[in-house]
Amino acid sequence: METLIITVDNLLDNEKSYQQAVDILNEGGVVAFPTETVYGLGALATDEQAVRKIFEAKGRPSDNPLIVHIGNREAVEQYAIQIPDDAYKLMEKFWPGPLTLVFHKRPGVIAPSVTPGFETVGLRMPDHPVALELLQTLNGPLAAPSANRSGKPSPTEAGHVLKDLHGRIPLILDGGETGVGVESTVLDMTVSPPAILRPGGVTKEMIESVIGQIYTESGVADDQAPRAPGMKYMHYAPESPLFVIAPDEAKIAEAVRLLHADGKKVAVIGPDEFTIPEADWYFAVGPLHKPEAMAANLYRAIRQCDVTEADIILAAETEMSGVGAAVMNRLTKAADGKRFPL
Ligand code: TXA
Ligand code: MG
What we know:
Layout: E1 4-7, H1 15-26, E2 31-34, E3 39-44, H2 48-58, E4 67-69, H3 76-79, E5 80-81, H4 85-94, E6 99-105, E7 120-124, H5 129-138, E8 142-143, H6 158-165, E9 171-174, E10 185-188, E11 195-198, H7 204-211, E12 215-216, E13 242-245, H8 249-261, E14 266-270, E15 281-284, H9 291-306, E16 312-316, H10 324-334
Parallel strand pairs: 1-9, 2-9, 4-7, 6-10, 11-12, 13-16, 14-15, 14-16
Antiparallel strand pairs: 2-3, 3-8, 4-8, 5-6, 6-7, 10-11
The chain binds threonylcarbamoyladenylate and magnesium ion (MG).
C-alpha cells in the first residue's frame, strides 16, 4: 500500500483533502491525523471491520481499548449513558482539549473492538483545527489511538507516523507538529470520586479546581485486570535502555564518564541550559523547570536517540507539578522504572 501525506494548513484550500480523508474513512479505511496532543490513527468507530484495521496497522494488543474522538460536546449522549453532572462541568471547561472521559457506554452503537470486553467508553473532543475539521466533515465518531507502531513513542510529527506506518496505512494528514506532546489525561467518570487512569495535558490540579478531589491510580501489575489496560504494556520504549537521572549537570557528566569507561556510547536528553561535552549525543528538550516544553519535545528526543548508535540513554527528570506528572509518567515507562545510580 502507498502511504500518501497531504499537508493541511490555513493557507491552503483544504476541502478536497478532508473529503479524500472522509471518503477513505466511509469506505472502512484508516487515516492518520494530528490532534493537539499527538497524531492519531482514526477509523469510523461504528465500523467493526475498519476498527480492526487500526489494531493490525499498529500491531496493537486487541484487549487495549481505543479512545473515541467526537467533534462536538452534544455527541457524548449518543455514545455514553449515566453521564454525571461533574462530567458536564469538565466538558464545559476542558473540551475541546486533552481530557478523555470514561463513561458507561450506550449499548449497540460503538463497534465492539473499540472497547473489547468493556462496558465503558473513553470519549474526547480534540482541540486541533485539523482534527475538528475532519470530525465535522465526517459527521461521525473516530476511534483513534496514537498513530505509532505499538511500543514506540507516540508521534508528534507526520514524519514519525510515516516512519512507523509507511505502507501500512493509505493517508496521513500533515498538520505540522502537535502542541502538547503527551497524550490526553484519561479520567474514569464511572467511579466516585473520578479517578485519573493516565496523567496528561489536563492536570489533576486543573480537574480538582472544577469538581473537587479525585483519585490518581498508579500503574497496575501485569497479572491484575487493569482499569486502563494500556498501563500494563511497556510503552514508549526506545531501542537502547533508558535511565532516568537527576537534573544535575555535574552528575550527568560523571555518569557519562563512568559509562565511557565501560566502553558505552551515551545519548543524553536534558534541558537547554546544560552543556555536557562528554556526551556522545545531547538532545535538548527546552528550559529547565519547564515541564510543558519537555512534554512537547520528549517523544521527538527519544526517536532521535533511536537513530544514534547510543548503547545507553540518560534522561534528566523534570518536576511533578502540572504536566510534569504526565512527562514523568511517560519517562518512567520508557525507562521501565530504571534510574541511573549516582
Ligand atoms: O491524546 C490522546 O489520548 C491520543 C490522541 C490520538 O487522541 N490518543 C491516545 O490513544 O493516546 P491510545 O490508544 O494510545 O491510549 C488510550 C489510553 C489507553 O491507555 C487505554 O487503555 C485507555 O486510554 N482507555 C481507552 N478507553 C478506555 C476505557 N473505556 N476504559 C479505560 N481506559 C481506556
Ligand atoms: Mg498510544
